[in-house]
Amino acid sequence: MNSDPLNDIFLEAMKSESFKNASENVMNNKVHRGRIVAITEKDVFLDMGGKSEAVVPLEEFVETPTIGCYVDVIFKEMEEGIMVASKNEAEKIKKIEEIKKAYREDTGIKGTISEVVYKDKEPKGFIVDLGCGINGFLPLSQIDTRSKEPESLKGLSFDFSIMEYQKNNITLSRRKYLTKTLQKLYSNFFQNHKIGDVLKAKAERIEKDYMFLIAEGVNLFMHISDFSWKFLQNLTRVVKPGDELEVTIISMDETKKFIKVGRKQLLPDPWGNVAEKYSISQLVKGKVVAFKKNGAIVEIEEGVEAFLPVEELSWTKKTKDPKSVLKYGDIVRVKISSIDQENRRMIVSLREIYENPWDKAKENYPVGRKVEGVITSILDFGVFIQLEDGIEGLMRKEDVDWIDQNVNLKEKFKKGQKITSIVLSVDPEKERLRLGYKQLSDNPYKTFSLNYPKGTPVTGKVKEVLAEGILVALENNLEGFVPLNLLAREKIENPGGKFEVGQEIKALVRYVDVGKNKIELSIKDYLIKEEMLETEKYLASSNENLNQITIGNIIKEKLQNLDMEKKDAKRKTKAK
Q1: Parallel, antiparallel or unpaired: strands 392-396 and 432-436
Q2: pLDDT, position 568
Q3: 0.70 cut: is pTM over it?
Q4: Is the domain 357-440 a CATH 2.40.50.140 member?
Q5: How do 109-119 and 157-166 pair as beta strands?
Q6: What's the angle, vertex CA 455, arms to CA 449 and CA 458, rounded to 5?
Q7: CATH code at 456-531
Q8: How far apart are CA 364 and CA 262, in angstroms?
Q9: pLDDT of 236-284, one tens digit each?
């Protein structure tokens, strides 16, 4: 019968003196190290030294072991003369010792979040698997993570500090671990570095105007202005998380644990020779790369930007928004107005490369000249008209219509409409050009004053009865006014009792104010003049009886006529 090596191991094990004291070792939970000498379908056999052996269930190995490897175990019991050991129990004891040491020395321990603990449907913390079947509790307040969803942390592994350790109670803190670890990292960093040191850093969090980097475990801050000499609007367009950058330390504050770094400081400064390359009044080309409220940023070369003020865009257009004239990426030709190398500032002008049309405005637009233009805007007080060379003139509301001083400009004109007007005044120094529309035709009040001088009778119709008089509609849509004291020979207190809208009246022109578009009439003067004419006519027809006529007779007859007029007026009032 052939000899079986496994049977030989069992035989030697039963004879071994070390197994006689196995129960003592089990009670003491002492960890022993053995070498794998054989493997069956269910067990792993170990040589424990000193002619002692043990057997460990194969199921306790996550991966199939290799003969010759060493394994730490705990002796559990003798079974049919064989020492049964446990690899898992040994690992658990070692893990407990590791936890105790981490708690005593306040060092970190690794663990994996396995479960979220809820109370009343609200997350309160996490169960953390520390290994070997040992769990710890991590309060929600101690996680110190940007994650907003607790369930998303399940399965993630972290280092933790142990806040509390009892037999069956282990409380963990991620926040405490990070704080302590960072303190050490920052302390080492400030001890080992100074301003001007060059570092290799990795971009971690990137915003539009700044970003945070990591180097040697500490956070570094970089503003967009320190990334490149070239003008940038958004860091996220040029850097992504994980990018490695070479940076230099610009400033350090150990109290605030703040470290500011820059990248452009390691690159050649393009402003170093700007004064040699460029001069005032020089024409240069540039690219529009950004806009500000009061102008545009023009890149003259990489790292050299110039400011183009909004007032330097055009001689004639009063632009408030530079985006109405320029757009991103436009290539423009500009003239350098000023260079301040020390403050890294250059001012340029777009309009300076063109002739200023206001320089020849008096020559091109003499007073009285008819001009054509396009309406660019309509406001309550007037209309702006752009002429051929870009100059804008203002046509005020009072210069639109001779008669209608309250004309609705937005109803009469439309934006973009072509219009003919006449130059009323020009002031090149103040860049003002006044235009007129009504002046294209004669002033109807002036024409009226020529056709109807003072004392001339006119006929019109009552347009409106007012307490202070009546308005009279005259020819050519003109309007005259008869004051209360000139409505009749006698005193009238209520014009409504004697006049009505549409009633035809006759009156004399008292005066015409062409400048104020005002015509004043008098019915009283007309009646007096008519009476005088009737008197003259009467006297002329009675020449043969002239000697018999006396002044007393004439006055008597006129008084009788006046009395009849009053009686007629009373009858009309009663009839109404």
Answers
A1: parallel
A2: 65
A3: no
A4: yes
A5: antiparallel
A6: 70
A7: 2.40.50.140
A8: 57
A9: 999 999 999 999 999 999 999 999 999 999 988 888 888 888 999 999 9
